[in-house]
Amino acid sequence: MLPCEESLSMICGKLLGDGCIVKQEGRKPRFQFIHSIKDKEWCYYCYSRLKDYLPLTGPHYKRIEDNRVQAGYTESYHVQSRTHDHITNLRSIWYKNRKKVLPFEFLGKYLTPLALAWWYQDDGHLKKVSTIPRKIILSTDNFTPAENNQLCQLLKNKYSLFFSIDKQNRIILYDQFQIHYFLFLVSPYLHPCMYRKTITSCDIYNQCLNPNRTTIYLPAHIKLTSPTREINEKLSMLPDIFTAIKCNNFYTNELLTFIESTKTHVSKKPYQIVVSEENLQNLSKLNKMTGLNASIVAQLCFMEVQSKKRLGQN
User: Which GO MF term does the entry hold, naming one (predicted)?
Assistant: First the structure.
């Protein structure tokens, strides 16, 4: 069967991750991926999804003696294809001078959220501290720094994801909102055996609330006469944000543009207020769900109220 857009997205993610196209001298190339025994389910799942598009042989178990590891051996599952013109073509796209490269024209077409998810499940890591996500790492150290810079630019242009490159030549997300947004993009495609790479509902709810007296920073152009009352009134819009998240309508282009704009210097005024218990719980929950702090969320609520007023006038 000819590869379709979905299968090419999965292949794209696999080749960004643990997949490769091996070629022995004088022979045609073969598609291959290897996973450790702990990721056996993921290996079998990838095989089941790709076998209708690539002539793959089923996963087979390998145990290799290795004195460098504590157990004295490693265990893994290997999948390799037979030869096929599709694989020969993929090899010509992804390899130059026998080395894997980043084919940006191909990535521009097929680096979909599905491809991101497969790449992340292969070569991604979510670092959490006390259930709080701190960074997402994608292992890209086999590519050149120039390629990784271009890859970061592609992810920025395509998804408004702002990766940076660390000293090990890996690309990383540190920003809380960006981490949650990335997980939102990939979560529909995560296999259950990879839930260790996401945030569970327990991570969201098992958190201590902040003290009631909270400092909210708002742009100076927002004029308040009774800060506690007015901010709490605007925070009553929080259930609408939860509804948007539930309906997958939260991460809009407008929101992504707004969040990026908050990183530029804007004169802000602090308001130390007492947040109502209901609003406090909603702010805490929303922070764990999106990574947005109380000040940004409050500003969103003010913007939502203004938007509804404009719609009412029209």
Answer: endonuclease activity
